[in-house]
Amino acid sequence: MVVDQIADADVDRIFHALADSTRRDILTLAVGGKYSVSALAERYPMSFAAVQKHVAVLEGAGLITKERRGRERLVRTDVDTVQKARELLDGIEELWRARVDRIDNLLANEKRTTGGN
Amino acid sequence: MSVTSVVKDPESLTMTVTADLDATVERAWQLWADPRQFERWWGPPGYPATVVDHDLRAGGRITFFMTGDEGERHDSTWDVIAADPPRHLELRDADVDEDGRPNDGNAMTGFVITIDERDRGGAVMAIHTHFDSLAGMEQVLATGVEEGMHMLISQIDAVLAGAPA
User: Fold this and answer.
1) pLDDT by residue (tens digit) across B30-64?
2) Which residue of B has its CA nearest to A108?
3) What is the DSSP string of A43-65?
4) Is B88 part of a structural domain of the chain?
5) Range of the domain at B108
6) pLDDT digit string, tens, across residues B105-120
7) What range defines the domain where residue A88 resides?
8) A94 three-class SS
9) What percent of chain B has pLDDT over 90?
10) Which of A5, A44, B20, B148 has the fewest Cβ atoms nearer than 10 Å?
C-alpha cells in the first residue's frame, strides 16, 4: 500500500518542499534534467543563492536529484516521488466517484417516490 | 448524470471533481446543508456517516463520525470558512481524536464546493480539494481504503442475496 511507503519525516519534507510556488515551478522545469542550478537561476528574479536554496530543499525532500555533466551539475525531478502524490490522488478520485454515484442514486430514488422536485 | 471531469495536480496537491446532477441548484445545496441528506451519501453502505453538529455558517462547525460494522469509528471535524446558499461552500477539515479534540500534527484538507445551473437543465457541482500535505492525502485515503472495503463487502452481500448489485 502506498501509504506505507513514505515515512512520516519524508512526508513532512515533501510537504514543505511542495508548499512553495517557485519550488513547484522548478520541479516542472527540471523534469527533463536539462537545467543546471545557474540556468534555473537565470529564469527567476532572485539571487543565485536563493534559487540554490530552493534546489537544496527539493533535493532534501527527494523530489530532485543532481547529476554531473562535464563541469555542470544538472538538476532532475525525481518522478517517482511526484508519482506517489499522483497515486494518492487517484485513490481519492475513486472515493469521490463513489460519492457522486450515491448522490445520483439518492436523487433518482427521490424522483421515483415524489415524482420530481 | 455523473462525474464529468476530474482534474488532479500532484505538484500542487489539488483535485477538482465536477459532476452533473439531475437536480436544481437548491436541491443540490441540500446535499450539504441537510445533515440527514449528507449522511446518505458521504459514506458507503456499511460505513455510514452520522452528523453530530451541523452549523453551516461562516465560523460554524460540522462534526460527524463514520462507523463500520466491526464498531470501528472515524471522527471528523470541519470548520465552515464560507457558506453562501445555494452556490458556494468552503470547508476545512481536521481529524479529531476519540474525545473530539483536533489531533495535533494531523494534516488538514480544504474543500471549496460550487454549485451552478447547467445549461441543459440540472446542476453542476464542483468540489475543489486542496491538501496541505501528502500526509493529509494519505489520511483521506487510509479512511477511504476502509470505505472501499465496506463498499466491496456490501456489493458481495447483494450478489449473495440475489439482489441487483
Assistant:
1) 999 999 999 988 887 778 899 999 999 999 999 99
2) B22
3) TSSS-HHHHHHHHHHHHHTTSEE
4) yes
5) 3-160
6) 444 678 899 999 998 8
7) 2-114
8) helix
9) 32
10) A5
Distance of alpha carbon A35 from alpha carbon A76, whole angstroms: 8
Q: What is the mean pLDDT of residues A52-81?
A: 87
Count of the separate structural domains present in chain A: 1
Question: What's the confidence (pLDDT) of residue A115?
Answer: 60
Residue B18 included in any domain: yes
B68 located within any domain: yes
Helix axes A48-60, A8-18, angle to 10 degrees: 150
Residue carrying C-alpha cell 453551516: B56
Q: Are the beta carbons of A98 and B151 separated by less than 8 Å?
A: yes
- The reported pLDDT for the residue numbered B144 is 61
Question: Count of domains in chain B?
Answer: 1
Element (H, E) at B49: strand B49-54
* ipTM of the predicted assembly exceeds 0.85: no
A2 interface with B at CB cutoff 8 Å: yes
Do the Cβ atoms of A95 and B147 come within 8 Å? yes
Flag whether residue A28 sits within 8 Å of chain B, measured between CB atoms.
Answer: yes
Give the amino acid at A69: R
CATH assignment at residue B117: 3.30.530.20
Per-residue pLDDT for A37 more than 80?
yes
Closest chain A residue to the Cα of B27, Cα to Cα: A117
Classified as helix, coil or strand, B128 is strand
In A28-56, which positions are buried (b, 16+ CB within 10 angstroms) versus exposed (e)? eebeeeebbbeebbeeeeeeeeebeebbe
Q: Give the separation between CA A50 and CA A29, rounded to whole angstroms.
A: 17
Cβ neighbours of residue B140 closer than 8 Å, sequence gap 6 or more:
A92, A95, B109, B131
**pTM score:** 0.64
Pick the more confident residue, A26 or B74.
A26
Selecting from B2, B19, B134 the residue whose C-beta is nearest the C-beta of A6 gives B134
- Residue B165 lies inside a defined structural domain of this protein: no
